[in-house]
Predict the structure.
Amino acid sequence: MNYRTIGVAVSALLLTTSAMSTYAVDANSVLSGLFSFNTGGTTSGTGVAYDATARLSPQVIAGGISPSKIDLADTEFDIVAIIRPGILPLGTVSFRSSTGTFSLAMQAAGVLPNGDEIYKSTFTFSRGAFGTTTMATTWGDSSGQYNVQAVDSGQQRTHRFPELIVGNYPEQTASTSSPSTVSYNSTKRFAPQVVMAGYSPALLDIADEHFDVIAIVRDGVLPISQVSVSQNQGGGFSALMQEAGHLDNGDKVYTMTYTFPRGSLGSNTTISTVWGDEPGQFKIQAVDEGQQHTHAFPDIEFGNYPEI
């Protein structure tokens, strides 16, 4: 069963939705042109260390599913996202079908030390409804795919994951809240899980020369050995990510910095097809110390994955 078939199943279990149309540039043709990267250093202790640049608009800098390995006996998982406010506080956050009419409200679930906010929505389903399968390309703007949209309190400025947008986005001061405890489904499996991934900032200014690729990764029965970001067949890009802190629920932050020549990504570009299993798209893979258990974002896996 492929991701489009599963998308229909999710829509049937939830309902279905219309989203804004957008000009999209192929991820392979743009991102494969980024010519260097910096994996940075390791940061320990509670907190996060990645690019926290704010813009006028809110930015959904990461999205995912927790747990991302779902057991046959499970009846729910959390849709989760990390959102950076713009110059106004956040108004609404929603999980939306990209081509239908479905929209599911998400609720605040904590504030990180850098002011980025966690949002979640719990999706419930009948035990065994998905069988044994893998959803490989959930995020995007095509039929059967989904996005997370954030709207500011003025109801004027928006951004949605997984879009990486280049334009006139000068740096601003975010309207942040005080840190608070993170609360979303933190179920562990034998294998590690990449529960969220994205880029920060997600709105790039035409003068920018870098952004951070970020991932939120959960240990399995063994500690994590390595986390890497790579391009699927036909791309050839691969780089290790470095630990950059952790959330107060124990999930770890990994990051890698892309650098590129100023102006090389254009001046009015939207990339919405970054994550997936198709040629030229990207994945983030976590491997445990035993080199036996792995998980790759954006895969959502349904099967025999008991809780540990």
Confidence is low (pLDDT under 50) at residues 1-25, 32-37, 40-45. The first helix runs from residue 3 to 14. The CA atoms of residues 233 and 279 lie 5 Å apart.
